[in-house]
Amino acid sequence: MTTTTYSLYKITDSRHIGFSPDAYSRFKFGDEAVAEQFGIHLAEGFIAHHLRHHPIVQMVVVSSPYSFIPTATFAMKNHFVFHLNRWLAANGHPVLQETKVHRTISYKEDYGQLDAAQRLQLIGNDRFHIDKAFLEGKKVLFLDDIRITGAHERMILKMTADYQLSNELFLLYFAELKNPDIHPNIENYLNYYAVKSIFDLSPIIQGEHFFINTRIVKYILNYDFETFCIFLQNQTDKFVNLLYNMALGNGYHTIEAYQRNMDFIYQHLFNRKHKSIEHGN
């Protein structure tokens, strides 16, 4: 098994990271227009550095691991695949295949503000599963949005070792922290640059290019109850139903910290449905 890491942006100076922190933050909270830009740029960089002058074999793309709700990286992955497939097809190569790393998540915390040791301790009980037979004889591209401490990467590589994969692996990132003197909580700074409160989510949710992901669901469910109630009552039925269905799919109704907000969503949907029936709709 050979492993190659490629990142489009290398962060060496916290004052000049090379890309817009505002755009990155909106991407992390579901702005698919930004995910499209990031995916296209990553595909172009990968083509230029690792494909254009190299033999092409069947490749399989694997987005960052998730359970039921996709991550922000999943939206970026879609556009990475669309753009790369056009290049592959135009040059007579087989288009990409996809598979998923199934993930059993053991925590609810946001690790963006943690250091390397704390991150490893937090995700150490997570379980990752992949279809080894499907990958046989193919080049595997593991996609993620940012590499900060490498904690998730180590979990992925542990999984590949546990499954005894012999494939050529690529670990692809939109950005990578390369300066060890920069604290890992720069990820937290980037994640929340454009989202200082729950109300900052409304322009993203109500925009034309919203793509729900794990981060936005957890952020909403973990918000203080009174503010959460005000926020929710200003959202459409379509979004509230989507939020509830996604939360159930990830089992968030069983997490005590989310219970009160989940109960309010249920009552909110029930009351709206009851009023609709009452008025003959």
Primary descriptors:
five-stranded parallel beta sheet, 281 residues, 12 helices, Rossmann fold, 7 strands, alpha/beta, single chain
Condensed summary:
The chain is α/β, with parallel strands linked by helices.
Going by CATH, the architecture of one domain would be 3-Layer(aba) Sandwich
Number of strands: 7
Structural class, by secondary structure, is alpha/beta
Low-confidence stretches: none
Principal-axes geometry comes out as globular
User: Ends: how far apart?
Assistant: 60 Å
Give the CATH class of one domain: Alpha Beta
Query: What does the largest sheet look like?
Result: 5 strands, parallel
**Average pLDDT score:** 91
Describe the strand arrangement of the main beta sheet, using strand numbers. Answer: 1-7-6-2-3
Helix content: 40-55%
Query: What is the H/E order?
Result: EHHEHEEHEHEHEHHHHHH
Could you please say which CATH topology of one domain applies here?
A: Rossmann fold
